[in-house]
């Protein structure tokens, strides 16, 4: 297909506002693509390479402006292009405002009058992307000038956008997915699944055309070809238990998501970030760890966390520095240690596991990897989940992930089967009226605290809190409350109502357990309200209002 025809089709799509009509126009483009099908399935999204491929053109706006200026004429400068961009607001409009084709130069190769084809543009852009080392920027400029020099204004509009990954014609990945199904008469779910395992719209389009639904069903994961990570929504423990009955709870780490691909061959480990950029070279200790502890070819999902000398987690920014490191990686490794926590297995020993339930995938992961597997708890007990969260927070991690044990792995999906525990959206100021001594290493601290709300006649209990409190803070709270202890019986302590805690929670529910008639689901200690007296604490009437009335 000539690039001029692609530009005309792109202009027609851009002018359309109805989603279904845009989809129809994209489907027609794909149906007419012939040998350029894979390229057009990417170009229409503003891509040169498949989504899984971390290669980039590495062309900044300034280089593009310089190429446009050079092709536009001897009296045009990059500054002129920038000035016109400020007026018109979009690089395609600027490129289309110039008349090209009059300039001759090394990059034009004497072909300035030949019609530019889609395949030529693709080939030239791929060659341009591969340029590196001394003089590479000048070579890229020459190549880009050569392309613009052969463009009509309308071709230049879409070439400039393609080069800067700003196609802006209203076509997203979902549109191309549906258009592939329409163009080649295959079910949308077949296209969706093929895209999940390949992450390559060009490949999927070609297979849909040549082999239909049966061909798409044969596509599988491939080691070295990353797929999108499954994502989580925010949610609550209460909802998770209600929806699934049993919950797979895991610590939520403050690290960087990684997808690990491994074969037994030499240099058989490749590691990809959440956006599918290869980061293998920046993580040599993770590579060494995988080589030591993984016995079978596999694709794993996990998190890389930076830790200090004691193994305590460091902020996410420390991991990010390592991901961006291109030089002196070994020195950076000595400064910041990275630790892998693997939590899922997508592929093992030649078998795709995307459709297997979570618990089966976790079992395969545990059998494959002899160390570095993130711990998981299966439970339907909200109190046990609260304890797991407390341990995660005390260890310095972010909190909890809640997962449906029966769920499949859906690349790129932010579904309801994985949930990040919803941050506390409401707080109460509650009076401490009792406590309980801790156990084990916490035996010398008050480990949980009985909370009460104010009523007209005094205080009535509403729950206990132990989550969100470090050992250091427990020591401080024990010292703070010691002067107010009224009585002790075994591990239970009665405390005079003098100290007010700020407490976050997920939900208020009716409960016969406490005097107030209410209980807090997943209470979490946020701090001491030194500025409040017990009489200023939240009242039972406010609790009723938050619950939704007395009824």
Task: Write a concise synopsis of the structure shown.
This protein has 551 residues and is of the alpha+beta class.
Helix-strand layout with pairing:
Elements: H1 3-15, H2 19-31, H3 37-43, H4 61-72, H5 78-88, H6 91-96, H7 118-130, H8 136-148, H9 153-163, H10 173-184, H11 188-198, H12 201-217, E1 231-235, H13 237-244, E2 247-252, E3 256-262, E4 269-273, H14 284-293, E5 298-307, H15 316-324, H16 329-335, E6 337-348, E7 351-352, H17 358-368, E8 376-379, H18 382-394, E9 399-403, E10 414-421, E11 426-437, E12 446-455, E13 458-465, H19 471-481, E14 485-489, E15 492-495, E16 500-505, E17 507-510, E18 518-521, E19 524-528, H20 540-547
Parallel strand pairs: 1-10
Antiparallel strand pairs: 2-8, 2-9, 3-4, 3-5, 5-6, 6-7, 9-10, 11-12, 11-15, 11-16, 12-13, 14-15, 16-19, 17-18
């Amino acid at each position: 297909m000539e690039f001029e025809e692609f530009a005309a089709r792109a202009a027609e799509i851009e002018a359309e506002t109805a989603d279904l009509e845009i989809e129809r126009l994209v489907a027609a483009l794909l149906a007419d693509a012939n040998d350029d099908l894979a390229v057009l399935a990417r170009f229409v999204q503003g891509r040169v390479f498949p989504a899984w491929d971390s290669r980039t053109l590495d062309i900044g706006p300034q280089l593009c402006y310089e190429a446009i200026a050079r092709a536009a004429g001897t009296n045009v400068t990059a500054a002129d292009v920038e000035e016109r961009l400020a007026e018109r607001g979009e690089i395609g409009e600027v490129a289309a405002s110039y008349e090209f084709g009059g300039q001759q130069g090394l990059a034009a190769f004497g072909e300035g009058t030949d019609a530019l084809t889609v395949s030529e543009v693709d080939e030239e852009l791929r060659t341009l992307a591969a340029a590196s080392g001394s003089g590479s920027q000048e070579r890229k400029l020459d190549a880009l000038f050569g392309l613009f020099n052969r463009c009509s204004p309308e071709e230049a509009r879409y070439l400039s956008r393609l080069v800067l990954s700003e196609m802006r014609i209203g076509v997203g990945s979902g549109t191309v997915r549906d258009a592939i199904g329409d163009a080649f008469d295959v079910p949308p779910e077949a296209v969706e699944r093929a895209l999940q395992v390949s992450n390559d719209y060009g490949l999927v389009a070609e297979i849909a055309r040549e082999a239909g639904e049966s061909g798409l069903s044969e596509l599988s994961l491939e080691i070295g070809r990353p797929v999108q990570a499954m994502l989580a929504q925010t949610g609550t423990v209460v909802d998770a238990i209600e929806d699934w009955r049993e919950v797979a709870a895991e610590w939520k780490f403050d690290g960087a998501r990684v997808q690990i691909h491994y074969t037994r061959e030499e240099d058989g480990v490749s590691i990809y970030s959440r956006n599918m950029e290869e980061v293998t070279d920046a993580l040599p200790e993770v590579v060494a760890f995988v080589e030591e502890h993984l016995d079978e070819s596999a694709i794993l999902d996990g998190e890389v966390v930076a830790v200090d000398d004691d193994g305590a987690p460091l902020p996410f920014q420390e991991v990010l520095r390592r991901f961006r490191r291109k030089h002196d990686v070994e020195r950076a490794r000595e400064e910041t240690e990275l630790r892998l926590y693997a939590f899922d297995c997508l592929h093992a020993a030649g078998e795709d596991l995307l459709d297997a339930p979570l618990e089966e995938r976790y079992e395969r992961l545990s059998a494959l990897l002899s160390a570095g597997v993130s711990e998981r708890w299966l439970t339907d007990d909200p109190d046990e989940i609260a304890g797991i969260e407390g341990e995660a927070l005390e260890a310095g991690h972010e909190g909890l992930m809640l997962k449906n044990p029966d769920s499949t792995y859906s690349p790129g999906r932010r579904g309801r089967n994985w949930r990040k525990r919803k941050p506390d959206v409401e707080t109460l100021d509650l009076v401490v009226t009792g406590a309980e001594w801790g156990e084990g290493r916490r035996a010398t601290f008050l480990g949980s605290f009985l909370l009460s709300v104010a009523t007209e006649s005094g205080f009535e209990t509403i729950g206990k809190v132990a989550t969100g409190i470090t050992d250091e803070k427990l020591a401080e709270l024990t010292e703070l409350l010691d002067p107010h202890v009224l009585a002790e019986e075994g591990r239970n302590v009665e405390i005079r109502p003098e100290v007010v805690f700020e407490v976050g929670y997920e939900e208020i529910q009716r409960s016969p357990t406490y005097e107030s008639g209410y209980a807090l689901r997943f209470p979490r200690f946020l701090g001491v309200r030194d500025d409040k007296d017990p009489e200023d604490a939240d009242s039972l009437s406010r609790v009723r209002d938050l619950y939704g009335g007395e009824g």
